[in-house]
Amino acid sequence: MPPVGVTPKTRSMMRFLSIDPEIFPLMGVLLTIFTGVGYMLGRKATNVNSEGEGETSDFKYRFHKNADLNEQILEAPSAVAEHKIRVNLPKETKERLPKGMTVE
């Protein structure tokens, strides 16, 4: 006699699959997706990049000049841009602006 806890769960699962057979292709697609994701994550975690070893303190993006691996490595420009412009404002508008936005 099988254990009591296993039989009802197995029967209900078989009953569900016999009532809803279009779930088999979905299960196949999901199995393929999760297998691919697991493979890629495992492969990426064990991949070693020999370039720039020991320089983990700065995580700046670097690239090779002209995408040639034999060329020199260049630092990417900063993504933060700051612009200063001069604008003549009426006095009442200037008083309502935050102090950090205005330079006297």
Low-pLDDT stretches: none
Order of helices and strands: HHEEH
Q: What is the CA-CA span between the terminal residues?
A: 90 Å
Radius of gyration: 31 Å
Roughly how much helix do the residues carry, as a percent range? 40-55%
Residue-averaged pLDDT, rounded? 77
Order of strands, widest sheet: 1-2
E-strand count: 2
| Number of helical segments with 4 or more residues | 3
Helix- and strand-based class? mainly alpha
Biggest sheet statistics: 2 strands, antiparallel
| Strand content bin | 5-15%
Shape: elongated
Please characterize this protein's 3D structure.
Keywords: Membrane, Transmembrane, Transmembrane helix. It comes from Ambispora leptoticha. This is 8877_t:CDS:1. The chain crosses the membrane at residues 23-41. With 104 residues, this protein is mostly helical. Helices cover 40% and strands 6% of the residues. It has 3 helices and 2 strands; from the N terminus they run H-H-E-E-H. It has helices spanning 7-19, 23-45, 91-96; strands spanning 62-64, 73-75. It has a two-stranded antiparallel sheet with strand order 1-2. The N and C termini lie far apart (90 Å). The mean pLDDT is 77.
List the helices and strands and how they pair.
Layout: H1 7-19, H2 23-45, E1 62-64, E2 73-75, H3 91-96
Antiparallel strand pairs: 1-2
In short:
This protein has helices at residues 7-19, 23-45, 91-96, and strands at 62-64, 73-75. With 104 residues, it is mainly α. It has a two-stranded antiparallel ribbon.
